[in-house]
Amino acid sequence: MAELVPFAVPAKSDKTLLVWELSSGPTAEALHNSLFTEFSRFGLLYSVRVFPNAAVARPGFYAIIKFYSAKDAHRAQKGCDRKQLFQKSPVKVRLGTRHRAVQHQALALNSFQCQELANYYFGFNGWSKRIVELQELSDLKERENEDIVAPLQKQSLKFFCALEVLLPSYECRSTGVGVAEEPVHQLEEGPLSFLMKRKTAQKLAIQKALADAFQKLLIVVLESGKIAVAYKPGEEIVDVRNEEELHDLIQVNCVSWKQSCQGEEEYLSDFSLEEDEFRLPKLD
Fold first, then answer.
1. CATH architecture of the domain with residue range 111-141+153-231
2. What is the rounded CA–CA span in Å between residue 134 and residue 177?
C-alpha cells in the first residue's frame, strides 16, 4: 500500500516512537545526538526530544522521536527495540498506538523543513524554485509626502512574493505566495539598518511563498519504494510558524530537551501507558 507524506508537521501516533531506559551517564545533548544518528538510518526525522526521567524513577532519560513516514518509524522500532545501540544496556522502543478521536488541522512546515523533506525524497537536483514576482508593498514614500506624518511605529517594509516550485521528473509545478513585513523607525535607524531590514523582509516573503507552494504537494511513496507526486491546490494547512520564520527557520530536530519540555504531555498521549512493560522504570 502506498504511503502519503504531506509537507506538514507529523501528527499521527504511528509516526512517533518512545525510547526509554536510556543511560544516565551521558548528557541530554549527547543522547540527542546519538539518538539522531542512530534513528536517522531508517528515514528522515522531524524531531528528537530527550527528557529526564520523573523524580520517582531511577536516574536516566527517555526520548520521543517523530518521523515523517509511518513506514520508517515502524522499521526503526523493529530494528532498535531491545538493542544496545550506543550504550551498554539495551533500550526499549515502542511505536505510538493511540489514535485520537478528534482530528486537528494539519500544521504547516516552515520553508527550511519543506526543503529538507524535498531534498530527501526528490534529491537536491530533483526540484527547483523560480521567483515569478517580488514586489514591494511598502508605503513609506507615500507617507513622506503626506502633510501629517503617520506614527513611526506603524511604518513598515512589506514585500509580496509569488514563486513556483518545479519538479521536472514528475512534470509537476506548484505556485505559492507569501507576504512579509518588517517594522521600520526611519528617524531612529541608519541607512545600513534600513537596507538590512529590507533584505530581511524580502527573504521572509520568499520563504513563506516557498512553504506555501510545497504545502500544495503530496509525496506518494509506492510499495516498490518509487516516489510519485500529487498536486492538491485546495489542501489547506494552517501556518503557525511565523515565530520560527523570524528566527531564521531553526530546525526543530536541533532543539534540546531544555527547550522542548512544553508539549511533553501531548506527545506521551500517543502511547498506551497501561501496559506494564511500557511504563517508565521505577526505583527498586
1. 2-Layer Sandwich (3.30)
2. 10
- The sign of the torsion formed by the CA atoms of 71, 75, 78, 80 equals negative
Q: What average pLDDT score do residues 32-44 get?
A: 96
What are the residue ranges spanned by the domains of the chain? Answer: 9-95, 111-141+153-231
Give the pLDDT confidence score for residue 69 in this predicted structure. 96
Name the pTM for this structure. Answer: 0.77
> Of 13-27, 87-101, 260-274, where does the model show the most confidence?
13-27
CA distance 104 to 75: 26
Superfamily in which the 9-95 domain is placed by CATH: RRM (RNA recognition motif) domain (3.30.70.330)
Task: Output the pLDDT for position 138.
Answer: 73
